[in-house]
Design brief:
Mean pLDDT: 77
Oligomer: single chain
Number of helices: 10
Largest sheet: none
Bound molecules: heme C
Shape: elongated
CATH architecture of one domain: Orthogonal Bundle
Helix content: 55-70%
């Protein structure tokens, strides 16, 4: 039994160089193929991660908009504070083209069909343009032009002030109303703009709650350990 085995061993020993060399060659080639494949895969994952080749910024924005729609039961029910957070006074300057037929807004601008609107935000409704003949309805409305009042007025002037002589149907887009209100505010008023607190804050609050829960759990665990240590020490 021993002898044939020795023979086989001898024969394999007789050609170690050849077999080993071809084996190494094969392994090296296979290694490079695997390496290349791995490199390719890695690069495609990396490029996907960093460049979003298939999905650029846009879907993230759309996802956010859908979130808003879900929360309010419809995009039209976005709060005015949120609309204000989405637009700029510059947007509003463009919207104001719809108002310019009847209103000037520069400081000291002349009255047209409607009163000059410089600094109107924050003033008592129907009073701020000295010498302008307001309708009795607007002049007796009372209250102050804040952001919410202006939103309601611009949404439906005749609905907000029954009997007003402002012959304007209103702006149906809440973002247009927000933008033009920001623009008016930037022209001589500068009231503090209502702060929009996005849902992210709530998410963070929940996360903070979790952190507290985790901390409590950790403290409990530490208390248990020290109790055990004390018990062990007492036993000694
Ligand atoms: C067709 C003319 C016309 C257009 C267009 C118009 N307004 Fe007026 N606006 C008036 C008139 C007239 C009054 C005075 C109403 C009254 O006395 O009842 C008025 C009053 C106002 C007031 C109240 C001013 C105050 O001193 O209380 C505001 C604010 C206002 N308009 C904003 C706007 C904005 C913003 C737009 C554009 C989105 C606009 N208006 C478009 C004619 C117009």
């Amino acid at each position: 039994m021993g002898a044939p085995k020795m023979t086989q061993d001898n024969s394999s020993n007789a050609t170690p160089g050849t077999e080993s060399a071809s084996g190494d060659l094969f392994n090296t080639a296979a290694g490079w193929v695997l390496f290349a494949a791995g490199l390719g895969l890695g690069l495609s994952i990396l490029s996907g991660k960093f460049f979003h080749g298939d999905k650029p910024e846009r879907p993230e924005t759309m996802g956010y908009a859908i979130e808003v729609a879900d929360e309010g039961g419809g995009a039209a029910e976005m709060t005015f504070a949120e609309a204000l957070s989405l637009v700029t006074p510059e947007d509003g300057e463009k919207v104001f083209a719809k108002c310019a037929a009847c209103h000037t807004i520069e400081q000291g601008g002349a009255a047209g069909v409607g009163p000059n609107l410089y600094g109107v935000m924050g003033t008592t409704i129907g009073t701020h343009a000295a010498g302008y003949a307001y309708s009795p309805a607007l002049a007796s409305k009372g209250g102050t032009w804040g952001f919410d009042e202006m939103n309601e007025w611009l949404n439906n002037p005749r609905g907000y002030v029954d009997g007003t002589k402002m012959g304007f149907a209103g702006l149906s887009s809440i973002e247009d109303r927000a933008a033009v209100t920001l623009y008016m505010n930037s022209m001589g008023s500068n009231l503090p703009v209502p702060e929009f607190v996005p849902e992210v804050a709530e998410v963070e609050a929940v996360a903070e709650g979790d952190v507290e829960a985790v901390e409590e759990a950790e403290q409990d665990a530490a208390a248990e350990v020290s109790e055990e240590t004390e018990a062990a020490e007492a036993a000694e």
